[in-house]
Amino acid sequence: MKNLSWDNIDLLSDADISYLLYKEGKSINVISKIRGLIKLQLKDK
């Protein structure tokens, strides 16, 4: 597994950033608003 942290945010994919937000306890609704994504995109991947 990759070493995911906010320290290397410029190297992270969109999925990695969403995962870090999820790990911090953010809900799918909050993540989708922060990331500007629709919920279906997160569920399908």
Layout of helices and strands, plus pairs?
Layout: H1 14-23, H2 28-35, H3 39-44
Helix pairs in contact: 1-2
Describe what this molecule looks like in 3D.
By secondary structure, this protein is mainly alpha-helical. It has a domain of 26 residues.
Keywords:
45 residues; mainly alpha; 3 helices; 53% helix
Radius of gyration (CA) equals 10 Å
Which secondary-structure class do the elements indicate?
mainly alpha
| Oligomeric description of these chains | single chain
Largest sheet: none
Strand content range: under 5%
Shape: globular
Unreliable residue runs:
none
Mean pLDDT: 82
Counting DSSP H or I runs of 4 or more residues, the number of helices is 3
How are helices and strands ordered from N to C?
HHH
Number of strands: 0
Distance between the termini: 18 Å
- The percentage helix is 40-55%
Summarize it.
The chain has helices spanning 14-23, 28-35, 39-44. It is mainly α.
